[in-house]
Every structure is written in C-alpha cells, then in structure tokens.
Amino acid sequence: MTSVRRDPGAEPVRPTAEDAVAAAGSELIGGPAGRRALLGVSWWTPVRIIALVAIGMFALGMVQKLPCYNGGWFLGATAQYTHACYSDMPHLYAGRGFAENVVPYFDRIPGAADGMDYLEYPVLTGLFMEVAARLTPHSGSLQHQEQIYWMVNAGMLMVCAAVVAVCVSRTHRRRPWDALLVALAPAFALTATVNWDLFAVALTSAGVLMWSRSRPLAAGVLLGLATAAKFYPVLLLGALLLLCLRAGRLRAFGTALGGALGAWLVVNLPVMISSRGGLHIREGWLTFYTFSRDRPVDFGSIWLVVSQRTGDPLDNVNVYATLLMVLACAGIAALVLCAPRRPRLAQIAFLIVAAFVITNKVYSPQYVLWLIPLAALARPRWRDFLVWQACEAMYFLGIWMYLAYTGSGDQHRGLPPEGYQLAVIVHVLGTLYLCALVVWDALVPERDVVRRDGSDDPSGGVLDRAPDAFVLGEARHAAAYEGPARVEWGVRRE
C-alpha cells in the first residue's frame, strides 16, 4: 500500500496556526484543528461553514431588532433609539411612497414629510426596494405592512450576507477561513438591516472575486452594477488603476473600466433619460446626486465634531472634504508606486474606501459594511480587526443614544453632544489605526501575513506575480520578481 504525499502548499491556511487570538478563541469549540483534521473529506467545507456562520450572525442581528419590530418603530421617536434597533426600511416604506405603489424616480412622492419629492437612492438600490415592496402584501394596517416590508428586505439581504461571506472566503484561495472575520464581525450583524448597503457590498465582493480569478470584464461589470447601487464601489477602480499602472497591466484595467461603465449605463440610462417634452435628464434620477451634494454636515463625520465645537456650520464642507480626499488619494498613489513591493489589491482598496469614509461629510452606521470585507482581505489579523470592531460598536451605540438624547425633549435621556463627539472620534481613530497597520504591511512586506507563505497578491488576478513596469523612488531598486527585468528612470523594462 503506497502513501500519498500531500502538497502542504495546497492546504488551506489555518488561522489558529498563525494567529494567537484565533487560537485562543477556538478553545470555545474544542481548540485548534489538528493536522490530521485536514486529511478527511467532509461536507463541512470552509466555505459552507462560513456561509452558515454568516447567516447565523445575520439572524442574531435580526433578533437584536426585535424590540423595534414589536413596536419601537411606531411608538414614538426615542424607543427605537434607546433599544438601538433603528432601521430606515419601515419608515421609508410609507415615507417614499411604496405603500401607495409609487414608482421610484418616475412618480413624485405625495406629501413626503421631509420634503423629498423623489427617492434619494441610486437606481439599483431603488429597484431592490421596489422588488421588496412588490413582495409585501398591501393589506392590513400600515404598521403590519411596514413590519412585513422590513422582514422581506431582511430575507433578501440575508442572501446578500451569504454572498459576501462566500466571495471573501473564495477570493484568497489558500485563506478561506479569513472570511470568518466577516461572518463574525459584530458591526456586520448590528448594521446589516439598518439600510440597503449590503446589496452593494455583495456586488462589490463578487467583483473582487472575479478580478482575483483574472476575469477583468466580469469584475468591471459587477463593480459597475455595485456603483449603480451605491457610490463607493467606483473607488475600487481607482485602486485597480494605480496597481495596473505599476504592473503595466493597463489593458486589463481598460477592460474592467469598460465593463463597469457599460453595466452602469445599462442600469441607469432607462431611468436617467426622459423623452417627455424633449430629451432631458429626469429629475427623479438626479435626486440622489443633488441630495448628496446639497446635504449639510451630518451625523458621524469628523466635520460634525468640528461644526459643533466651533459653532461654524461649515457651508463649504464639500470643498474641505474633497480636498482632504484628494490629498489622501495622492498619498495612497505614492504608496502604490513607491512601496518596495507592489501592495496587494485588498490593501489599496481598503485604504481608498477608508479615506472616503473618514473624509466624507456623513457617516451612517451601516457604512462600516463597506469596509469589513476589504479589511478581512487586507489584514486578516484577529486582534487588530476586533479592536477596530469594538470602536465601530461603540459608535453604533453612540449615535442611537445621541438621537435619544436630542429626541427626548427636556428630559435629555441619552448621550449628550460631548459624548457623541467622543464616539465619532473613537470611530475615526479605530479606522485610522487599521489603516496605519495596512500601510505598515505595504511598506514592510515581510510583516504581511498573507504573503508569509510565498504568495504575492491572491486577490490580484492578472497582477499576481506580475513584474513591475512603472515604479518610483527606492522601489526602482527593490523588485519582488526581478527576473531579467531592469529598472531605468522609474520604469522597469523587460
């Protein structure tokens, strides 16, 4: 009988073998898996386990919303805040005309309490909301319909949560267990049903997966669809541009860009263009963009802290935020082109989206969903991830307690402005902490846990192990895969 020797490089990396926090946490389920546990073949593959864990955590997040489902959304303003179970979904069911069969972007919302004439969400998210409304029985009391609408949306978003977990687990082939960071993230469960962001996150995660499989067209199409659901996914195209520039893979980037633009136009053009009275851009379609441009300093942003502390309304906040974002992107570009080894896609994508989150004039609690899958791919270290998640959980509680304080009249039950400002600062510092570690890993590649097994960029697709074509600074003399290549005047030539 002959024994079959297994290739250690083909085995999945076990977090408990390289991460002390993961090893300690595994004691809750019997301790780290042994070497022989990997030899058997079982239905319980990492991807299936992670998907089930993600669904289980999503269900726990639904349970956390139970006080609101049983009346907190309807018994006055403060109950949904003191129980930290607020969701936009039941309020917008009536507030945006879904209860009256208003077609988003085409029909004006009758008598909207906040003066919003049209739906203020991108087209694909509006379609998601409309599908959920069509699946909601328009019978019984309005409160009952709003409950069912939330439940229908939660069911659809649960599918999105499973898609995110599966995509992250399959992006780094040898590190499927890193997706447990996503599945078990506290902020993931707490914010999943606050709004519809998880739909865009699922499309973005699928786009990153397609890029990791060297399918730039499919990746671009998915990122274009994600951008049609939320603005932030377009930032990943910036990360791809910088990395493809350094690797000389601009043709792949062009393919992805073309796919993204085409997919975005296919979704938006039918809603964007109106032929009534001549061709023009429909007002309903523009609402998302005009609302984003005109809204003042809002909850969660560092600009709100500055405004409250100084008394200045910061009317020019768009200029300030844009300038700070441009400076952050310039720094990230310098990192990509000057690092001793080309950074990984997940690292740069995380940094760009994090820069947008920090500099933006609003930070809704569900925006953390944008970062969680990217963080798990960029720096799969449990201690640092959980430190960041603790900061985000503090902010999640902080904003609801602050709204309870402002909505409870003279009683002021909740968190005063000073406490809320501290929660905002904790959120920003937690995000900056993780950004600093990602930058450190990029500048000192030996620290990058993903590359310790000899990998280059498992999520990089055509960038993986590609020789550099354009580099600056000291990177000209420190190529990771030099081969016959040589560097002259910042350009490595074959």
UniProtKB/TrEMBL annotation:
Tell me the leader sequence span. Answer: none
Q: List the record's Gene Ontology CC terms alphabetically.
A: plasma membrane
Q: Which Pfam families does this entry report, sorted A to Z?
A: GT87
- Principal localization? membrane
Query: Which keywords label this protein?
Result: Cell membrane, Membrane, Transferase, Transmembrane, Transmembrane helix
- Source superkingdom: Bacteria
**InterPro entries registered for this protein in UniProt:** GT87, UCP010361
Q: How does it sit in the membrane?
A: Multi-pass membrane protein
Protein name (database record):
Integral membrane protein
Q: Which organism is it from?
A: Streptomyces bingchenggensis (strain BCW-1)
